[in-house]
């Protein structure tokens, strides 16, 4: 499923804000067909790195190469709309570039939220709004689906369902997925490659490797122990690219 040519290749990215190091010497590749997840405590630069990779924030130095014509579907951590703006779910999704009514109907049905179509976006629950934002990202027909904390405001059952859906979407679209998450156990079951950040790359690799790495266990403590909820285990039968990225931060930043 993967190809050798990265969709995004980042080399030696550095970013400083207000005299504090946010990103230092970050190098990584995003390859079609892989699900890559960034985990780590608040303030370690995960969301900032996402924005740099997408070109929403400029790095101070380093190099980013994106495939020509690359399509990116981005589900941000937060998106607030003016409460004074009357806007239905269908109206909101129709603002997505190149979105057609057929596409909107398909993805609303695919994510089991067709009943939300006529509702005001201001009346949605947190979980419903997250699903609408995911539809918005999928409407881009992305080569890379970027999900920044995709299960905020979603109950545990909804989180499990969403994380089971992500590999299906990857296969259906033949895209890469780049996620930021704090939901250690559920995300471990739904990813191919984990990059654990805490001012530097503590560890990276397949979830089976990372979950027993001493650096991971030390960083997350009791949170790294198996949860008292059922989840499935995801295995993918392709090889994984090596990550040799380094992140150093003397001061923690908010993502």
Helix content: 25-40%
- Biggest sheet, spatial arrangement of strands: 5-6-7-3-8-9
The helix-and-strand class reads: alpha/beta
What sort of overall outline do the alpha carbons produce when their principal axes are compared? Answer: globular
Rg over CA atoms: 18 Å
- The N- and C-terminal alpha carbons lie at a distance of 32 Å
Low-confidence stretches: 227-254
- Indicate the multimeric state: single chain
Helix-strand sequence: EEEHEEHHHEHEHEEHH
Number of discrete domains: 2
CATH superfamily label of the largest domain: P-loop containing nucleotide triphosphate hydrolases
Could you name the CATH class of the largest domain? Alpha Beta
User: What is the makeup of the main sheet?
Assistant: 6 strands, mixed
- Could you tell me the mean pLDDT? 81
Tell me how many strands there are: 9
Gist of the model:
The protein has 255 residues and is an alpha/beta fold. It has eight helices and nine strands.
Describe, in plain words, how this protein is organized in 3D:
This protein is an alpha/beta fold and 255 residues long. It has 2 domains: 1-71 and 162-221 and 237-255, Rossmann fold; 79-141, no CATH class. The chain has 8 helices and 9 strands. The protein has helices spanning 46-54, 89-94, 101-110, 126-138, 156-173, 184-188, 207-210, 214-220; strands spanning 8-17, 20-30, 35-39, 61-66, 72-75, 144-148, 176-180, 193-197, 201-205. The strands form 2 sheets. The chain has a 6-stranded mixed β-sheet, with helices on both faces. Helix 5 (156-173) links the parallel strand 6 and strand 7 (176-180). It starts with 7 loop residues before the first strand and ends in a 35-residue tail after the last helix. Residues 227-254 have low confidence and may be disordered.
